[in-house]
Structures are given as C-alpha cells and as structure tokens.
Amino acid sequence: MELLWGSSHISGGNAAYVEDLYETYLQDPNHVPEEWRTYFEKLPQVNGNVRQDIPHSTIRDHFTQLAKAKIKPLSVESDSGITDHERKQVRVIQLCSAYRQRGHQQTKLDPLGLKVRAPVPDLDLHYHKLSAADLDTVFQTGSLFIGKDQATLKEIVDSLEQTYCNTIGAEFMHIVATEERQWIQQRMESVRSKPAFGDDVLLHLHERLTAAEGLGKLLASKYPGVKRFGLEGGESLIPMMDAMIQRIGSYSAKEVVISMAHRGRLNMLVNVLGKNPSELFDEFEGRAEYHGSADVKYHQGFSSTVETPGGEMHLALAFNPSHLEIGAPVVEGSVRARQDRREDPEGKKVVPLILHGDAAFAGQGVVMETFQMSQTRAYKTGGTIHVVINNQVGFTTSKREDARSTEYCTDVAKMVQAPIFHVNGDDPEAVLFVSQMAVDYRQQFNKDIVIDLVCYRRRGHNEADEPSGTQPLMYQQIKKQRSTRDLYADKLIAQSLISKEYDTEVIENYRRALESGEHVAKSLVHEPNETLFVDWNPYLGHDWDCPCDTRIELKKLQDVAAKINAVPEGFPIQRQVGKIYEDRRKMAAGATPINWGFAETLAYGSLIDSGNPIRLTGQDVGRGTFSHRHAVLHNQNDASIHVPLQHMAEDQPNFTIHDSLLSEEAVLAFEYGYATTMPNVMVIWEAQFGDFANGAQVVIDQFITSGEHKWQRLCGLTMLLPHGYEGQGPEHSSARLERFLQLSAEHNIQVCVPTTPAQVFHMLRRQSLRPLRKPLIVMSPKSLLRHKEAVSTLEELADGQFQNVLAETDSLNAEKVTRAVLCSGKVYYDLRETRREKDMDNVAIIRLEQLYPFPEQELEQALAPYAELKEIVWCQEEPMNQGAWYSSQHHMRRVIHKHNRTLYLEYAGRDASASPAAGYMALHVAQQQKLIAEALGFE
C-alpha cells in the first residue's frame, strides 16, 4: 500500500486531493467516482479500519472521532444517575445491533413474493421502549457508518431499514472476529447497501442479463423439451459471475477455478467462459466429436482466458457428475495444486469459486466436510467464494420442513463463521454489490464467504418436467412473473438511461451473434499466454506396459537411507520411535533385512532424491495407522516436529505430509483434484483402514475409476488401503477389493496387492517414474508390516523391479508338483507356513501381485514349469462373493486352459457372506484354518 501511495499520481501535490476524496468517501461512498470508490474499498484494513500507517491525517482524525462517539455500556433501567435521553441512547444502540443481527429476517428476498415472513420483535421500536414520538430526537450514531456522528432516530431507522431489510439480507454477527464484522458493517452501512454505479456499469448489467436470457430463449426454441437444466429465473448469475471474475482479476489473480452442478451450466459455458455457441449446438444435434464414453453436455468441463483490470486470467470450469456437491472438494484440490505450482501460499493468485444448489447445499454432507477443510494446513486454499443458486425448490420438495431443519439452506456455512449474503435475484444492482463485496472480503481475510442468490426456476427441474404438478401455486405466479431482464430494462428505461429501441437492439444483436456462431463472452482472450499452463504431453499416448526402470544404485540407495534416518542433534524422540530408527540404520547397512515401513520410506526418499515431489495425506499418515512409518518425528520436550524426508537437500522437491481431518469423501476428492492438476507430483491418500474408503465411494465411482473416459482427465492418484484378515472384525478387514475389480475396465486403474517390501518399493517408484498416469489402488498390509518373513534385501530394492506375478520361491522339484495354489496378499504367508509344517512338496504357491490389469502372460510363465499339475485352486481370505474371485476367475481360467485343457479352477475361501468378516476371533481362526486346508488339499 505504501508503494501505491508513493506512486506519481497519488503523491506530492495530489495527496491533499486524494485525502479529501477519501474523507468524502468516508462520509458517503456514493459521492466519489466509482473507480476511486473501488480503490478505497480494497485498501488493507485493520480492526475494520484503514491501516494507520497510511499518511492520511484526515482518515486518522475521522476514526478518532468515531471512537470518541461510541457509547459505553450502561445499565439502562437500574442506574438512577442517568437521564431518560441517555437511557434511550443506549436503546438506540441496541436497536442498531438488532438490525445487524436479525435484519435479514425482514428482507424482500423472494422475487415471486410468495414467502411471508413473520415479524421480528427485535426490530420494533416498542421492543426497545422507543416510540414514534422519539423519531425526531437526535441521538449519537455510535458505530453506525452513516457518515455523521449524530442523527435523528428516523434517519437511523431509515438507514438501518435500507441497509439490512431491503433486497440484501446479511448474516455476519455470528463472526467472532471484530474486524471482519466491522468491515462488513462499514461496507454496507456507508452506502445503505445500495451504491451508486456508473452508467456504463448499468448498461453492462443490462447486456449481461440479455445474454443470459437470450441463450435460454434460443435453446428453448431450437431444442424444445430437451434437457438442458436452464438458468431461466436465475439470470442474475451471469452478471454476478462476470463481476466477480473481473473483480478477482483486479487483484492480479491469475486463475479462477469454478465448480458447479448442471443448473445454468450451459449458460455459464457460453456467456462467461466463452464456449463457441456453434459447438454447443453441435452437441445438441449429435454432431460433436467425443472421446471415450464421454458425458452429457451439462457435466463437461471447459477452460478459457479472459482479460481483466489486472491482466490475463485463466478460467477453468471443472467437470462435475450429478452427485452435485462432490465437485466442490475436487475443485479445492485443483486450486491447491495450482497455488502450489505458482508458489502462492496465501491463495491470492488462484481463487476457488463454487456454485451450489440450495437443496444440495443443505442436504449433502460433503458440503460440511469441505467447509471444515477450509482453514486446515493440508487443504486450505485462501478462502472460497460460494454462490448458492437458490431456486427455492430442490427437486420437488418445496416445503422447508421437508427440505431442511434450518431457516436458510446456507446455515451450514456458519460452522466456519463465513459471512452469508442473501440477495434477491431480481435486483441485479444488489447482486452486483454483494458480488464485489464477496470478492473483497475473500481477498482481505482469506476466508470463505457465501452468496445466497434467491431466484426461481421458470421451467421446472428440467425442460421435460411439468412443475405445476407438484408446485401449483409457485408456477401460477411464475407464469405471470416478468423476467429479471425485462424488469431491469424497464427500470433503466424509466431512468432514461436507455430507450425501448436500444433495448430491442441489444436483444437482436445477441441473438444474431449466437446464430452466427460468434463468441458472446466479454473480455475473452483468443490467444492466451500458455507459458504457465501444465504440459500434459509427456503423459499422453503411452501403452500400459511402457518400460520403466525402477532400479537404483546400491550406494545411492544407502546415501538416501542415511539422510532419511538422520535425527537432528538434541532432538529427543520417543523410545520406541528411536528403536525403529536404530533398526533402520542396521537395515541400511545390510546387517538386517529390510521391513515394509523402511522400504516404503526408501521409495519416497529415492524419488525425492531424483527430483520427484510427493504429497501424502490421510487420517494417520505421519506415524502410520499401525506405527510403521514415523515419517514425522515429535520432539518429546517441546512437541516440535521434524520430517527427515523434507531435509534431504536444500533444493529438494516438496515432500508434503499431513494428517487429515476425519473425513474420507471430501479429502479423497481433494486429493483427486490435486492429482488431476499436478501430474508431476506423486499424490497418495492412505485410509486408516481400507474399509473406510466406503465413505468416499462416490469419489471412487464418479471420478477415480471413470474420470478418464468421461472427461479425458488423467490422474495418477495412489490409494493405500490397509486390507487383510487378522480377526479384527467386519469393519477392519476388507478394503472391498471386489468393488475396485468390478469397476476395472479399459485399463482405467491399477489394482495391486504387494506382499514384500521390495515389491512396494518398486511399485511406488514405478507409479511416479513411468509417464503413464493411472490411479493406483493398493491393498496394503497390516500384519505383514512386522511379519518376520515379509522382508527383503537391499539388493532386491536396488536391482529389482515390480513383478506382477511372484512365482514359487521355495526350492521345489517341479516334476513333483501336482497342485498349484494361486493367491494374493497376506494369505500367502499362512499357506506357506502350513505347507512347511506338513512338508508338502507337491504344492506350488503363486502370488498375483497385480490383479488389474490382469497379468495373464506372467501367470502363464509362472505355471509353465509344472507339467504334472492335476489340481489348481484360487485361495482368498475374503468371502466367495467378495475379493477377487468373481471378477478375476475368467482371466485365470483362460491362462489355465492354455496350460492344460483338462484342469479345472477350484475355489478355496470363506463362504459367501453379507458381512465382510467374522467378528469373533475363534470364528475367524476356524474359518482361516478351513480355507488353508482346502487350498492345500488336506482335511
């Protein structure tokens, strides 16, 4: 700010002029030119006031005067030493507070006028023991920002009514921070929530409303009855978005990432992001090109670049399924990735802007989870601007007592003390005012803010729907309701700003532009600067089995081990953790075999050493749910932390590790969004138990497994899901392997079940180093983390590679083998232990370490030595209707048929069950012993 103040056009002889302008602004913002009002509104503030280090003597004097005018709390009734006027003065202050608290309950928010709101006693003069007889009495205005220290009660009430009870309802008194409340009060009260906009601004509003309505009308005439989830009734959204984008750009932001469901999406694409109308028409008429299975047109994403007062700004509208709000955390993840790429820790350069539906905002739990993430270290994005397109009907549930339990659909936002502005969609100037205020608040305080755009939907839920069947009274009114655009045009005509002829010309010009296939978005940049875009070319066009060398020189591996095992001098760590690190030093020296936790950590360290960033999050990832990782060390004296993986070298890439909030759905969606935006970063989400991924099934179904084919978005996200039957019951055994295999098709994901430390080492390195970007689903272990035989050597890490199939490792005479057991995961060690106990040299055990894509060729090679096979069995711990059996048996049979046409694949495992696992240890042990016996062929 000091630099700006010292610039040539503000300093020197112009300083007095600017100070006078600012003094005028403080008295009445509408009395200064709009460009100066915008500048003053964006000044940095402290405690609701302009920063005191700016050399405005008049500004300092003004706030000193305001401070002196504030009334000290008094006991109105009991203090006999005060006058009647002083008592009333206190009541006036209480009245002001009541308007700020509850004025929103008396606003004119419903464009249809159907909502009858109950009177609010707190806003009545008599409630505060005041009356009409006091209206002409002069009182001190206290903290009321109306430009003067004293005013009549009538002036005060009129000001409060105009500010808080017109077409804007403000909820902000739940905010704890005084400076934020004062900031909002000053912005609203100083202009009575109705700033004076210049003629050019009003004409732009008119044009944008005409565009919003014009597209809806044209689509209705060209494609009647076709679903398009139009914006009709909520056209103010288009000038709102236009205003916010330009305002964000004025802060020199470089990107805005937008999430929205289907309502109004086509209008946004054409009128805000600049999609060519002819492309949209081609999609309606079935002439558009598509890749993969594609998605409907009102779910597709789009990006463009627009010119703003702060320069070029990139806009990205994210793809979104019909799960409505699930797109919000995905966008937050994408925004965080873009901020990290731009080294923007405060979130000033990349801004998330999320559009919601009223019923979804109130009804879907992922909204709460996303709000809860907003100020956490791992997931903050510098504040999100939320816009609720509130058409007052979710689907057909119009009665509030059926749709929610709260007064407003936006009440959930109060959990993070976000200010909420309800605004009547039929008042475009009020919409513009709250749009500007929302952007300024976000940029000033880096917190979430919500705009509730109260409107209606003219054509029902979709254009094939007849809404009067369920909302007869609402749609009787809607049929009579003039559009927002027409009402605003009438207002401008009445003000003599435009003529009827001009209005007609604007309508016709827009229609002609649409029909001729011209871009109709304003400020569109047709040749944007692409230097800061992510280059995805290195990750395109690769075959599934593209080669990848995951080996590493032994000396380099030991150097990495030394760095990640280093504990700073004088940094006391807990005794058991110290033992883990001492054991790892022995492993690095080759004195003892390498266990799972160290192999995984070595994989991360080796990737960082070679320049590959990593992001690892989950509910317990710092130490690992089963205390195997301990990537984050905790000082036992002062609770400070040290992460060795972050201190390998001064110029190393980022290693980000955060314990997440107790969420699966929003957190996994966030990480998916991050991974789709930063292909060079290895993004890992670990579930506390694999079963907990259930809570994020929408993300898995709608994004992770299908996103590439629906939206052509590559994603290299890795999911670590602890899986294995150790008698811990039905909620802590199964990561639902069967669900991932059922969703596997067209090489969309990788599903791996590694059983050795060397395998996890090479699997993780392969995922990061090869240019293929596919989600990796890992059934990671629990008991194997400390199994005495689940170990590897340094040489296996240095010289090996990930093997999709692990052939028999014990020394068996292949000619004696008559039975082969195929399996995945922990059960291998149980099978091998029992085979050794019973000295069964006729049974070979083959591990499938990757279940999808199924490794048919490698399995053929593993079976090839056994020409005398008489029996072959698939063994799994999961019940028959779960696990890999149903999804993978056809692959196994195809391989077996090639090996020996007479062989029949048998099943050994738990019986089909509605529950994933037994809850009693005795039952678990009995089931486990039975399936092992069946697999090995003895009773």
TrEMBL record:
Taxonomy, superkingdom? Bacteria
Name the chemical reaction catalysed here: N(6)-[(R)-lipoyl]-L-lysyl-[protein] + 2-oxoglutarate + H(+) = N(6)-[(R)-S(8)-succinyldihydrolipoyl]-L-lysyl-[protein] + CO2
Q: Per the UniProt record, which residue ranges are transmembrane?
A: none
In this record, what's one Pfam family? 2-oxogl_dehyd_N
Keyword terms: Glycolysis, Oxidoreductase, Thiamine pyrophosphate
Q: Which SMART domains match?
A: Transket_pyr
Decide whether keyword Oxidoreductase is in the record: yes
Kindly indicate whether the keyword Ribonucleoprotein belongs to this entry: no
Q: Please provide, alphabetically and separated by semicolons, the GO molecular function terms listed in this UniProt record.
A: oxoglutarate dehydrogenase (succinyl-transferring) activity; thiamine pyrophosphate binding
An example GO CC term for this entry is: cytosol
Q: Which cofactor does it need?
A: thiamine diphosphate
What's this protein's name? Answer: 2-oxoglutarate dehydrogenase E1 component
Q: Which InterPro entries match?
A: 2-oxogl_dehyd_N (IPR032106), 2oxoglutarate_DH_E1 (IPR011603), DH_E1 (IPR001017), KGD_C_sf (IPR042179), ODO-1/KGD_C (IPR031717), THDP-binding (IPR029061), Transketolase-like_Pyr-bd (IPR005475)
Q: What class of enzyme is it?
A: oxidoreductase
Q: Which NCBIfam families match?
A: 2oxo_dh_E1, PRK09404.1, PRK12270.1
* Assembly, per entry: Homodimer. Part of the 2-oxoglutarate dehydrogenase (OGDH) complex composed of E1 (2-oxoglutarate dehydrogenase), E2 (dihydrolipoamide succinyltransferase) and E3 (dihydrolipoamide dehydrogenase); the complex contains multiple copies of the three enzymatic components (E1, E2 and E3).
Organism in which the protein naturally occurs? Oceanicoccus sagamiensis
User: EC number(s) of the enzyme?
Assistant: 1.2.4.2
Enumerate the spans annotated as Transketolase-like pyrimidine-binding domain.
594-787
